[in-house]
Sequence to fold (191 residues):
Amino acid sequence: MCGRYLANAGSSDVRIQKLVSMMERDYQGQYKTGEIFPGDTAPAVLGEGGRLRHAPAVFGLPGFQNGRLLINARAETAAEKPTFAEALRTRRVVLPADGFYEWDRGEDKTKYLFTAQDDSPLYLCGVYKVIDGVYRFAILTRPAEGEMLGVHDRMPVIARAQEVRPYLTDYFFALRLLTGDAPALRKQKAE
Fold:
């Protein structure tokens, strides 16, 4: 499960700096950076008709039980589920992130921040819908690997920098990415 992630505007990665610059130019004050919670509006890169577009998007799809937001979609079943199948085919999104948070399931509920072992940005993969003119997204999750094991049984689907464009523009590449190996992660206790 991925319920919170870190989108920091202070990244040293040139691709993230370019995205931040474009977001500030086009959408200043319309999105949040730092720790992103469900319901927050965050920077996103969307695939639209074979092209990439940057825009603010809201974390979570409405209409889930008891008015709660639907924030995750299982990668293993997204292509078959009516809620996600069309979006996976035609409306994929990546969320540039410095890391994501997860809590262990023990009694103390320790909060951990997971980052790339090589300190590169993480590109969390998801699907989006346009609801009342607003982009809204859910993050795709997969079975946990590596450092995630022992903390949680799910983790976000993560694209490497060179996989962002193909994930957003090529449905068959996206399907392969959903089941490919996850990048190596580092785990650290978070405040």
